[in-house]
Design goal:
The chain has one domain. Helix content is 77%, strand content 0%. The radius of gyration is 21 Å and the shape is globular. It starts with a helix and ends with a helix.
Length: 290
């Protein structure tokens, strides 16, 4: 406990707040502009800016006709693989002094990542049986509402852990309430805009809640390093909608976006581990010399 207090006092500085505020504000603004860009340039009759190939599905999909190897399939594989790696890291490092803040959201983050991957796996199944595009056509023609059990499952398995990982300080009851709202709101979004809907809401929740933290919490080092994990995903999201046909699809497609999320968090968690273990070692050396 003494080590944790010492770390907090000696390494909480104002530049963490300045840099953290700047990065959070940048990703938040980029996400809002992204959402508005997608909504406007996917309206009927409006062309330009957003890649025409991306518009077809709302994703940049590689190997769409290759069973078990489309971008949706590889999203599932990548999310499972890196979730397992992050899980091992969490079990090994969660009790290290100084790792409390960065470890707190790992369980929710893993569940959210797996839920995300499973959702892509389900979409890949629909690609293989031909029902994916038929479902889009049916929803547009008849405004089909998903079965209640499906909406409840999506709320509990997908949205709740995703929002909890984005806003770990929020009480579960409040996260549940927000999960119900965004699940219901999804019903008013065209299926090909579902990715843009999810990406925008998650980034607004994460970076907006970070900006609203108390000032003393913003002095922590994690406040500066955590939002960095959101930079690569938003860059990938913009590249996907702008350059799908140019290069993004041939480079891997949507799996690049999925991988960027969890790999960025793993890098953040690894950085916290190296920083805190070095700090703990220095504290032990000082204690021995006194």
């Amino acid at each position: 406990m003494c080590v944790k207090s010492k770390i907090t006092l000696e390494h909480a500085t104002s530049h963490h707040k300045v840099v953290g505020d700047s990065i959070n504000a940048f990703v938040l603004a980029a996400s809002l502009v992204y959402g508005l860009t997608v909504v406007y340039f996917t309206q009927p009759g409006i062309q330009g800016v957003v890649d025409e190939e991306w518009k077809k599905d709302g994703f940049c999909i590689q190997n769409i006709d290759v069973p078990f190897w489309s971008s949706f399939d590889t999203c599932l594989y990548v999310d499972i693989f890196f979730s397992a790696i992050l899980g091992v890291m969490y079990l090994a490092w969660k009790n290290i002094p100084g790792m409390e803040t960065s470890s707190k959201i790992v369980p929710s983050f893993i569940v959210a990542t797996l839920g995300h991957g499973i959702a892509h796996g389900a979409m890949a199944v629909k690609f293989r049986d031909g029902s994916y595009h038929q479902q889009i056509d049916d929803e547009e023609a008849n405004a089909v509402t998903p079965p209640m059990w499906q909406m409840i499952a999506r709320c509990a398995v997908f949205w709740f852990p995703l929002l909890k990982a984005s806003m770990p300080k929020l009480k579960n009851i409040h996260v549940s309430f927000l999960a119900v709202i965004v699940t219901y709101g999804r019903g008013f979004v065209k299926k090909e805009l579902e990715f843009a809907y999810v990406q925008t809401i998650v980034n607004v929740a994460l970076h907006g809640s970070q900006l609203m933290l108390a000032t003393d919490e913003k002095y922590r080092r994690e406040y500066m390093t955590l939002p960095l994990a959101g930079v690569l995903p938003i860059v990938m999201a913009w590249n996907e909608i702008l350059f799908c046909e140019s290069y993004f699809r041939s480079a891997g497609g949507h799996v690049l976006y999925d991988a960027s999320i969890i790999v960025s968090y793993i890098v953040f968690y690894l950085n916290c581990y190296h920083f805190n273990t070095k700090l703990n070692d220095k504290s032990l050396i000082k204690q021995k010399t006194v």
